[in-house]
Model the fold of this input.
Amino acid sequence: MIKVTELKKQYKEAVVLDVALLEIPKSECFGLVGNNGAGKTTLFRIMLDLVRATSGKVEIEGKDVSKSEDWKRTTGAYLDEHMLLSYLTADEYFQTLRKIYGLSEADLHLHLGRFTEFFNDEIVGKKKYIRDLSKGNVKKVGIAAALMGNPEVVFLDEPFENLDPSSQIRLKKLILQEKETSQVTFLISSHDLNHVTEICDRIVLLEKGQIINDLRDRSAMLAELDAYFTG
Amino acid sequence: MDLNKGAMFNYEGVGAAQFLMIIPMMVAPYLVYLPFAMIFNFYAGLAALGTIGVVGILFFNQLATINVNRVLKNRHEISSSFRQEL
Done:
């Protein structure tokens, strides 16, 4: 359960985010949509305590994210490439994470095994630094890293961006599978309305930092979003 | 900075600051050693230096906590410079 209350982010005069109340129950797939500058990434960053909120708070399982550290063990996230260690190869990076999470070699092997199809033989066992990978492959490394260590909550910012169509479909399958088997709560921001409506149970529409629509009806989602974005 | 460059004779990021940092590292042990060596003898100076080392090892956890707390306190600044916003 994630709870956001009276959250506000202000840069001098400009209010970039103003969320009165947002509750995300466990194992929900939560979609966040909105045009550029609507505050999607800022909201995710504040929820992950990467940016200081001007006022208000975010709680994960009843714990204020800015005042405790425990939630970090059960939360995975991939927002941008700066969250990776780009001077390592993908293999070295996964090994580093394995040690941090205290997993065994077999655990890691099992984890990466689920991504075999998604990685398409371009990530594991290659002697290429993450910074030299293509944008899509960097994203794949980040997503696999975010899902490591059996997280309960996973934040993904624009996960479909830069991926080829078959990888997009594989990623959708992966997310649905994770949700089914491990009850993971997913928070996904995306511009791709088709994908996000397909996997998410609920979609929140953000405009200028405010929640202007909270859609829960799967059948009407796409039509309503289409109507909003075509103006 | 070009990370793909080799490490040999690569002086990127090496400035006056790196050499200035050597000074306290070389001078600090003498600051501990010299007073004891002058007042008592050579061995007292070495013992003083050794004691400080042992105290450092014994209180390693407490000393590490100071740095951990400093990182946690500055986490927002650190993450923003990681994103290269500054």
